[in-house]
Amino acid sequence: MRHVKSHILFLILLLLCQSLAAQKRYERKIEVLKAQKEKITEQEKDALKQEVKDINRRLERGFLTLEEAKQLKEKAAKKRALNIENRLAIIDNQILLLERNQDETLVLSDIDSISDKGVRFGVDIDGKPAFLFGGKNWRRKIKYDRRTYSDLVIAVGLNNAIIEGQSLNDSPYRIGGSRFFEMGWQWRTRVFRNTNFMRFHYGFSFQFNGLKPDDNQFFVQDGDQTILEEFGFELDKAKLRMDNLVFPVHFEFGPSRIRETENSIRYSLKNQFRIGLGGYGGFNLGTRQKLKYEANGDPIKEKLKRDYNTSDLIYGLSAYFGFDGILLYAKYDLNPIFKDAIVEQNNISLGLRFDL
To answer: Is the dihedral of CA 232, 238, 244, 248 positive or negative?
Structure first.
């Protein structure tokens, strides 16, 4: 009988302790909610200060008039005041809900939301998650002032050579048949903080420069010299192609249009004049010659991949100008086409460039 009384006393004490612990948890939740009420006003006021600071900065840069800045500040103040009112009402309702149900509530998790960090859904029972679904990032945060953009660059046109001691009209290469192709990726960054008039362009490109000799000639490598000789059969095609990897750098000048919203500032080059001046440097990836002819009635195609004494290092000057993404483009190699040549030749190209 004594043991039974001891067990009953122990159970009563245990239930009393649990009741006191539950009461403390309940009181603690009420205290936390009341503390949140005090922080809400401070948080919204800090957010308003930051918005006003951003508006003043845009006003100083000339992106807003005084009247526009005033209207935006009034709108921001009204929004923050309503935020305070609504958020305090939410806390008050949570306190009433706890008091009415003595902390025995079934609620959705307060972090069920869609945000810039992802998606999360769940149900909490008595403050503990019953089930939860999480998602990966699905939306990027918009950058307010974007200074760097990127484009695919494609260029195509005529190719030839400037030969020491003679004019371009006397070139041994076909004016219309010698062509070049270039493809690469570029980044452009606004140089100055408050204007987009000057941009710094940089990136990488693959250049394919072709030379087609005239008068049934082809390229012959003779030791450290590469010369043109007449071919033994009638050539349908003879072409030397030099493949280069280069890293262009340009300073670009020209106006742009400003597209401004409450959340972002963007500079558009659409339908605007542009001019770029700069150069490039890189490496020769390979050189090959393609011959197409007929011998004894049989069509023959030859692809000869050799060094042909072409320069290993590629460097030169380039420029472009035009409107929007369609530009007239010129480039000139400062390095000679053939190393140690008796008569120096430099590659030159003229064509169209497309910034896509």
So the answer is: positive
- Helix residue ranges per DSSP H, the chain: 2-60, 66-101
Local confidence band at 30 (pLDDT 50, 70, 90 cut-offs): confident
pLDDT band at 193 (very low <50, low <70, confident <90, very high): confident
Q: What pLDDT digit, counting tens, does each position of 287-329 carry?
A: 999 999 988 888 999 999 889 999 999 999 999 999 999 999 9
Checking DSSP bridges between strand 118-125 and strand 113-115, what pairing results, if any? antiparallel
> Strand 313-323 to strand 128-134: parallel, antiparallel, or no bridges (unpaired)?
unpaired
Q: Is pLDDT above 50 for 117?
A: no
Report how far residue 346's alpha carbon sits from residue 356's, in angstroms, rounded to the nearest whole number: 29
Task: Please name the residue ranges forming H helices in 143-293.
Answer: none
| Rounded distance between C-alpha atoms, residue 177 and residue 172, angstroms | 12
Is residue 314 a contact partner of residue 246, using CB atoms and an 8 Å limit? yes
Residues paired with residue 227 on neighbouring β-strands, in sequence order? 220
Determine the Cα–Cα distance for residues 172 and 232; give it in Å rounded to an integer.
18
pLDDT for the residue 23: 64
Cβ neighbour number for residue 304 with a 10 Å cutoff:
14
- Nearest-angstrom CA–CA distance, 69 and 57: 10
Amino acid at 212: K
Angle at which helices 66-101 and 2-60 cross, to 10°: 170
Residue 184 · residue 202 · CB < 8 Å: no
What is the distance between the alpha carbons of residues 252 and 322, in angstroms, rounded to a whole number? 11
Q: Give the total residue count for the chain.
A: 356
Residues 6+ apart with CB under 8 A from 221: 306, 307, 308, 309
Separation CA 147–CA 84 (nearest Å): 35
Q: From CA 254, how far away is CA 239, in angstroms rounded?
A: 39
Q: Considering only 140-149, 190-199, 252-261, which range has the smallest mean pLDDT?
A: 140-149
Q: CA-CA distance, 169 to 166, in Å (whole number)?
A: 8
Query: CA 143, CA 194: separation in Å to the nearest integer?
Result: 16
> What pLDDT digit, counting tens, does each position of 151-168 carry?
999 999 999 999 998 888
